Amino acid sequence: MLKEKTILITGATKGIGRALVSRLETHNTICFALVARSSELLGELKAHLQNQGHQCEVFAGDVAAEPFVVSTVQHCVERFGSIDILVNNAGIGKFGEVEQYSLGEWQELFDTNVTGTFLFSREVVPHMKRQGHGHIVMVASDVSKRVCDGGTAYCATKFAQDAFSMALRKEVRRFGIKVSTIFPGLVDTSFHTQPQGDPAHQGWLSAHDVADAIIYTLSAPSHVVIDELMLHPLIQEY
């Protein structure tokens, strides 16, 4: 189901995004469009993929900056002719008591986690409608469905992302466009206070575990849509 597809991934250079790229390297007919903040890391990733024989374009910028998003999607369509898959993976987190948040920090979380999802989805949908097919995958969190102490801002962004996804799913289904949301629990990435691989993360999901869940969702037959998929490490009580 992934042959001859163009996939656009945000937050592509680290964590789940990078793991997804790694897993997709074995599908040698995929064209990659990769988005992240670091032009240096994107350049390294592009060189690696091209050495593997893949077509790849990279875009360094802020997922909440409308001109950047508009130009990125347009360039992808001009370069590859289509965007078959969008993975809204870019996200940031900050945790603490509510009085510790500044307005700027609150807005930064919503900009990346919610506005970025909205902008990229908005821009790819018209192209997918014209194609008569497409798949948008949101990488959310299990706190899209519950809350945690110290997570007022982060949980609010993930609830918003989930609500957006559910409504979008209803809106675009009749056009042959799938919308799927992945809800991971604890994942061993640099997203957390401790670095990736820290002993405190023992038993957590790996970024590749989540990448495999995304690929499973993308690989469903054309008449099947996996609306939601939640996964946790066995040691985490939901």
Figure out the total of helices.
6
Helix share, percent: 40-55%
Give the distance, in angstroms, between the N- and C-terminal Cα atoms. 32 Å
State the assembly state of the protein chains.
single chain
Number of strands: 9
> Could you tell me the radius of gyration in angstroms?
17 Å
Domain count: 1
What's the CATH H-level superfamily name?
Answer: NAD(P)-binding Rossmann-like Domain
Mind summarizing the main beta sheet? 7 strands, parallel
Structural class by secondary-structure content: alpha/beta
Briefly summarize what is shown.
Belongs to the short-chain dehydrogenases/reductases (SDR) family. By secondary structure, the protein is of the alpha/beta class. The protein has helices at residues 15-24, 39-51, 66-80, 103-131, 152-172, 207-218, and strands spanning 6-10, 31-36, 55-60, 85-88, 134-139, 177-184, 187-188, 205-206, 228-231.
SSE blueprint:
Layout lengths: L5 E5 L4 H10 L6 E6 L2 H13 L3 E6 L5 H15 L4 E4 L14 H29 L2 E6 L12 H21 L4 E8 L2 E2 L16 E2 H12 L9 E4 L7
Parallel strand pairs: 1-2, 1-4, 2-3, 4-5, 5-6, 6-9, 7-8
Organism: Brasilonema bromeliae SPC951
Keywords: Oxidoreductase
Family: Belongs to the short-chain dehydrogenases/reductases (SDR) family.
Task: Give a written overview of the molecule.
InterPro entries: NAD(P)-bd_dom_sf, SDR_fam. This is Short-chain dehydrogenase. The protein has 238 residues and is an alpha/beta fold. The chain has a single domain, classed as NAD(P)-binding Rossmann-like Domain (Rossmann fold, 3-Layer(aba) Sandwich), CATH 3.40.50. The chain contains six helices and nine strands, in the order βαβαβαβαβαβββαβ. A seven-stranded parallel sheet has the order 3-2-1-4-5-6-9, with helices on both faces. A two-stranded parallel ribbon has the order 7-8. The model has no long low-confidence stretch (mean pLDDT 95).
